[in-house]
Amino acid sequence: MADKENKSRIDYGIILSVMLLFLISVATIFSATYLIGNSGIRPTIMQIVWYIVGAVSIIVIMQFDSEQLWKMTPYAYWFGMLLLVLVLIFYDRPTAIRTGARSWFKIAGLTFQPSEVVKIAFILQLARVVTLHNSEYPQHTNSSDWLLLGKISGYSAIPLVLVQLQNDLGTVLVYMSIMAGVILVSGVRWQILLPIFLGAAFIGTSLILLVVFNRDFLLNLGFKPYQFARIDSWLDPYHDTTNASYQLIQAIKAIGSGQIFGKGFGVSEVYVPVRESDMIFSVIAENFGFLGGAFLIFVYFILIYQIVSVVFETKNEFYTYIATGVIMMILFHVLENIGMNIGLLPLTGIPLPFISQGGSALLGNMMAVGLVMSMRYHYKSYMFSTDKRVSY
User: What is d(CA 311, CA 320) in angstroms, rounded to the nearest whole number?
Assistant: First the structure.
């Protein structure tokens, strides 16, 4: 009986989803870098190594229950903010020149992007802030809801500013999506939320119109010409097919040429820049066609469904906000990456979660999975031993 109970503490649905993503990632990177490109076998090996490191992080994080996570969250958050400050000072210069962003440390020949793993501390901190506020103000009023929004905005502003100073707009958008998701489920009344989200939509639309009709105003605000070029490529991909829109047009050609069943593993007739990272979906679609791309999206759906299931099963408010942040992080990455590959959304340099080459992003995603798996692991353990629920 005890052995059966211990096994049920492990979420095998999430493990299966991550294993499928691991196989797709390794196969696609091998195809993009070894069979198609000239990068050798090292990128594939490094991806496997990072997956092993990520698996270890899952095992470690699963050892922390909700009370331990609650207590360590402020320390993790402020340590993360320290990392975001330090990377602005000690960033790797060659990488910054190549990418245009001051986002990476270089340690023992390996680059590391702290903003990717700090997302986890950010999610934990927002979850703690909302849970603590709702316990202090069980009845939602205008004043309490505005106070909660102020707390969330205050803790979000610090990483948003620091990441923007790194010149990494894509990651800023990820942090904003996490914040928006947590606000949406925090209990703030729709009378307050609706004007805020409508205002955000108005600002976003206005910025796009300003890109088209008054760029000088945005330049004075600190926007960069390369950001305008990405919007131009999004609105009219064929306006400059040999320069600003080249990457997008090549990705669209590769995806379209894969048709329904694809050309076969390791077969490519269309060159796509950075296809092992940001544009990796184009490799999947060209090799395995519409069916391959649809299968990948289905795996993501199963993973997110499993995370939602854990939330409903544990019924822990702190866990709920953690899971919301994790879901928003993964969902935004998937929608933005695939969307930019097919021309539906502007290019932002956001990797495809669990698939794209890149150790920092993969480690952050695996840590997020560890948080979710710790929910069921400790909830089950607690139920078996005391038949009560934990709530922090």
Answer: 6
